[in-house]
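Objective 1.3, modelling of assemblies. Example input:
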Amino acid sequence: MIKISKLIHDYIQRDEEGNPSGTIRAINDISLDVEPGQFIAILGHNGSGKSTLAKHLNALLFPTEGAVWVNGLDTKDQSLLWEIRQTAGMVFQNPDNQIIGQVVEEDVGFGPENMGVPTEKIWERVEESLKTVGMYEYRKKSPNRLSGGQKQRVSIAGVIAMHPKCIIMDEPTAMLDPSGRADVINAAMKLNREEGITIILITHYMEEAIRADRVFVMDEGKIAMQGTPREVFSQVEKMQAIHLDVPQVTLLGHLLREKGLDIPEGILTREELAQALRRQCGCRITAERK
Amino acid sequence: MFKDITLGQYYQTDSLLHRLDPRVKIVGTLVYIISLFVVNSFIGYAVCAVFLIAMIKLSNVPVGYIVRGMKAILILLLITMAFNLFLTPGEELFRIAFLKITKQGLAFAVKMAIRLSLLVIGSSLMTLTTTPNQLTDAIENLLNPLKRVRVPVHEIAMMMSIALRFIPILMEETDKIMKAQIARGADFESKNLIKKIKSLVPLLVPLFISAFRRANDLAMAMEARCYRGGAGRTKMKPLVYKGRDQGAYFVLLAYFAVCVLLRLIRLPISI
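Predicted structure (tokens):
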């Protein structure tokens, strides 16, 4: 689906007169492969280059060195630009700054309009996408009256209406409250599981990465760690060394293990931890209950 | 607090006028304004007024709502009347000190007042029955012929609609920045004009920075959704004339013909 080979990206720094004065290497030699239908999470703290990477996948930025292929299309080829942007949709962080329409349904129709889809088909796509994210009953509302999570789901609907094969979400939940965050992540999961759309979720909330098929951790423009969520989060010290937290349950499990309890590394959910604890002192709890 | 702001004072209800194609309403308003300058007799103004009253009835917008909108131009109206009343030369009716009122002046002032009020009510009736969105669409459509002379019609309409979308957001932001600056001791209440202007600086600078940042983000989001200008774009809600729109054009034509006739044929009882 997505293939990145030895990608390097430099931002040019300019002094006050606008002359180039130096470069900042935001992405330093990254290679990765994403299979169709996968749910990928990319983690990293601020300035680790994860947003820059996201913009490469949508041909909003172009490689300084190396190459990016989206569904076999080389992003350096200007003639493929619109096809790439249609294949890989993008959801940004600030919901207010990516909604163009003054009515929800008009905003969702914006992408298909740009692609030149005939009018009746636009309406079909809008209806279908709004139903997918559960925002159909808000179609006549002004985006200004929606909550952050609702706005972000409208943005997702706007991307789905373009029928992409892959959706890149650049910290879509960073500005939302917990319930809005859950709504957005659930909508993304649903798209991945039911529609088979490849999802690349960029986030700094570790809890959101737990359900991913693969996790990439970025640090200073490089991929510092990768693997399944369990593989990555079981390395608590390594995560902390690059200033990232692991999910709270994982951390609790890790600390208990350090204190000598027999709990496996890489606990991801509360249920898992509860089970491990029960196994530890199961007899005593059941005994006390009786 | 700014979420409920309505732009262009759209009055939400269902009526024949609301359902008309926005292009008809724009053309209609223009024709109506022209007609006000075509007629120049009191009978003519009566026709214009009757036509407007009929339209207001058709629009289902409460009369009180429309009259309230007139308050804004009351001062302008009075000044215009005063100028015409006192400064038109002609046959003297009576004078107060150095101010003399002429017969011609009186007639002119009254006509001017009628003309101005009808004009304002007429055009506000358009904005009351048409959403800003529909207006932008209609303007884009009506200006389409200008594309041949390389006027970026689509881009202008897109800018208008984005501006409309961001006005409430930026107002909310202004409110937020204002509160943040008040919390740091900024004084927005001062009566002193210079102080007042100075106090705007810490409000406007962050507002502009944020507006530019938003513009940057929005441009990127639009590009990510394949926006590349008007070429090759389809419309989700294309404007299509229906039977009632043709009917409306016909009524408009008939009305305008009457106005022109009234101007051409001098009625014996002309005032």
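The longest helix of chain A spans residues 270-289.
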